[in-house]
Amino acid sequence: MSNAGRDGTSSRRDCIRTMAAAGGAAALASCAPNRRAASDAGDPETGNVEAIHFPEGYPPYPSAEATETAFAEHVSPGNVGVMKAFGTELHFGQREGARVQDAFTKKWYWDCHRNGTLYNLGHRNPDIIAAVKEALHQLEIGNLLLISGYKAKAAEKLIASTGGALTGVTYTASGAESTEVAIRAVRGITRRTKLVSIEASYHGHTCFALAAGDNPDNHERYLLDFDDFVFVPYNDLDAMTAAVDDETAAVLIESSPAQSGFPVPDSGYFQAVNDICRKNGAKLIIDEVQTGLGATGKFWFWQHHGIVPDIVTTAKGLGGGILANAAVLLAPEIKEWFFDTAIPHSSTFGGNELGCVATAKVCDLTMAPGFLEQVNALAEQFAEGLRGGPYRVNQHGLCMGILSEEMGKMEMTAKLFEAGIFTVPAWYTDGGVEFRPILTLTENEADEIIRIFRDTVG
Ligand SMILES: Cc1ncc(COP(=O)(O)O)c(C=O)c1O
């Protein structure tokens, strides 16, 4: 994939640096007309994206090596190691729609990682940006104690997305914090501490969330191996029946565990789990951080499965990829108990007013007539296009796991990256990747991703 704007990009950047050194704002303004110079323009044939914004100091380090050294020193050497091991050392530069550009190599990649639901609506979605820009004239974070119409309005829309089945919203700042709130709520309401969750699932990096996720290294490292947090295999009703008893506060399920390659449960699995919970007086929590907000072709994954959970956790895409926001959705009975105290939960950034403007816009766009139909049409296009290859496709709309017996997960990830598709290995599989195309792809873009995938993997 070439980048039509590459030459224009660097000349505009040079222009800005030179002009800025020479004389400030007026000089910088004289660079502006170059923005739409021929060499900068997007190419409608290839879909290449126009270079749009290069303020001085972006990116903050002059090279990939300098960025990695500083990141490893000040933030996380582990992350640098992981990206090197995956063969996906991508440093986000320009981002637009379904693609991201490496800041240093200038190569464009199709984003099929999507960061869970974070970029469901694409990178730098113009409708989200417009809503947030408009709100910035008046709003900021807000005050966590005060009554806010912006929080209430976004909550109203989230409740509408459940068809009114869930009626309460508690805001948080992350998926992990949503997990904490959900577990705290079920412990309080049931007066029980036992939690049953799914092997190889992930719920975030706070204490309850790590304890409820199946990663023994973390349990050992942080002393989070709780006796009453137990794990059963996904889609195994015998194990679930054996594990859930009258001491169980809740069953917590990552709707389809991403790191296991988005397995597809047997028909009736979720209804049976729901029945097991009801029979034992346990609550059912569904973690929709990966699958919510339209990614599976309905607004929520659980809406495919004929159940209404007691609690739904969500995060990532609630801010439309532009701002942070996250939430826990509560069924009426849980809401009644959880809200019956002065401050059921408090989070400065959870439900921040700008974030809530973004959340309201995300709900409007996702519930707009035709949007989910479009997601389902894209899902069908991928199902067709990927059919017959030397791999198995687990598919829930645009949440897919592609599992190969011929190619290891690291090899597949690295080869796809080389070919221009960014994703990650499905960690708990031998050969498989998490494959989450962006929900706003055009048909041509989807065809191009399918073509690259098939040329690379078969
Ligand atoms: C299923 C699931 N739950 C929870 C989380 C944690 O979300 P956050 O990173 O916002 O804490 C993640 C993050 O990837 C996730 O995939």
General description of the model:
The protein has helices spanning 6-29, 64-74, 77-86, 126-136, 149-161, 175-190, 207-212, 216-221, 237-243, 269-280, 332-338, 353-367, 371-386, 409-419, 443-457, and strands at 92-96, 99-102, 108-111, 168-172, 194-198, 229-232, 248-254, 283-287, 311-314, 326-330, 392-396, 399-403, 421-422, 424-425, 432-435. With 458 residues, the chain is an alpha/beta fold. Helix 2 (64-74) packs across helix 3 (77-86), helix 13 runs parallel beside helix 15 (443-457) and helix 14 crosses helix 15 (443-457). The longest helix has 24 residues, at 6-29. Residues 116, 174-176, 202-204, 254, 258, 287, 289-290, 315-316 line the site of pyridoxal-5'-phosphate (PLP).
CATH topology of the domain at 152-332, which one? Aspartate Aminotransferase, domain 2
Q: How are the strands of the largest sheet arranged?
A: 4-10-9-8-7-5-6
Separation of the first and last Cα atoms = 19 Å
Per DSSP E runs of 2 or more residues, the count of β-strands stands at 15
Judging from the principal axes of the Cα atoms, what is the shape? Answer: globular
Give the structural class: alpha/beta
Helix count equals 15
Mean pLDDT: 90
Rg on CA atoms, Å: 23 Å
Helix content: 25-40%
